[in-house]
Amino acid sequence: MASEKQLIERTGRKLPLGRGSGVRVGMGDDAAVLRPKKGVEWVLTTDAFLENVHFLLRVHPPEAVGYKALARATSDLAAMGARPLYFLLNLALPPRCTGKWYDGVLEGMARAARSFGLTLAGGDTTRSTLAAINLTIIGEIERGHAVLRSGARPGDLICVSGTLGEAELGLQLLLRRGPRTKKWKRELLQKHFYPEPRLDLGQWLAKKGRATAMIDTSDGLSTDLRHLCEASGVGAKIWAAEVPKVVLADDVDKLRFDPLQLALDGGDDYELLFTVPKGFERHLPRAIHGVPVTVIGEITRERRILLVDDAGRTRNLPAQGWEPFRK
């Protein structure tokens, strides 16, 4: 079992530190001291990543746990159009997780931090019966440019990045096959293990100033669309045929997954769901920074969330994505 001092030292050796990048005081003191730039606003978010809630020690590699913990928190900044700067790391670990497992977590988190441009500014460690990773992410954006959930208006078009349902497919394969999952193609688990926050896309949309509202698909399209519509005081109509769904290979298709259901309710994809004024779609590239963008519906005045199927039939679209307090 490692001591707290040893854990802190190993953390400082593995993760990028913020010295010389706006961090006046970082790890090793009672609190961090940061120096903001002129003309920008700070964007802050916090996120918890908990054993037996968000990951399972028996099936999730420690490198994926560390990477995903930081990726999912950073995705909130992508959804505002902000650029990541610093993060604070709070750890609660059982003794069994302070050795090799924690080194793997640090490897994955360091990879994510370098990819997203984040540096560690400080944190805290304590002992617990289960592993818990709590992160605070600090980013910046030009003053007045943050894209909120509350700006969608009737007539706006609804867009989404990437493909939906891939992360949920990976999770279901992992849970069904357990240790045998290694026999499946690696790419089927990639998005569940190592999601990519759409930072470049979010910043592009914020800079262009054409996205009227935006959210990330952490909880699933059906749930996150409802969050956006409630914040904006509007409704929505989604065209099922336009939703970018995962294509199932023959060996996976035998397990009878429904690609549309995965896309609507799966969650954990960390794509961006955003709205743009009608007419702007003519100026919206099919891919931005290599990420496909698809128009999947429109914002309506009536405060209902509807799904239009391939035959043109309309039904209510309930929020069936991730809900931590659902029984």
Quick recap of the structure?
By secondary structure, this protein is α+β, with helices and mostly antiparallel strands.
Could you characterize the architecture of this molecule?
By secondary structure, the protein is α+β, with helices and mostly antiparallel strands. It folds into 2 domains: 4-142, PurM-like, N-terminal domain (60s Ribosomal Protein L30, Chain: A, 2-Layer Sandwich), CATH 3.30.1330.10; 149-316, Phosphoribosyl-aminoimidazole Synthetase, Chain A, domain 2 (Alpha-Beta Complex), CATH 3.90.650. Helix content is 30%, strand content 26%. It has 9 helices and 14 strands. The protein has helices spanning 4-14, 62-78, 100-116, 166-177, 187-193, 199-208, 221-232, 250-253, 259-265, and strands at residues 23-25, 33-34, 40-50, 83-93, 119-127, 132-142, 157-161, 213-216, 235-239, 272-276, 287-288, 291-300, 305-308, 314-316. Strands 7, 8, 9, 10, 11, 12, 13 and 14 form an 8-stranded mixed β-sheet that branches. A 4-stranded mixed β-sheet has the order 3-6-4-5. A two-stranded antiparallel sheet has the order 1-2. Helix 2 (62-78) packs parallel to helix 3 (100-116), helix 2 runs parallel beside helix 6 (199-208) and helix 4 (166-177) packs across helix 5 (187-193). The longest helix has 17 residues, at 62-78. The chain is globular. It starts with a helix and ends in an 11-residue tail after the last strand. The mean pLDDT is 91.
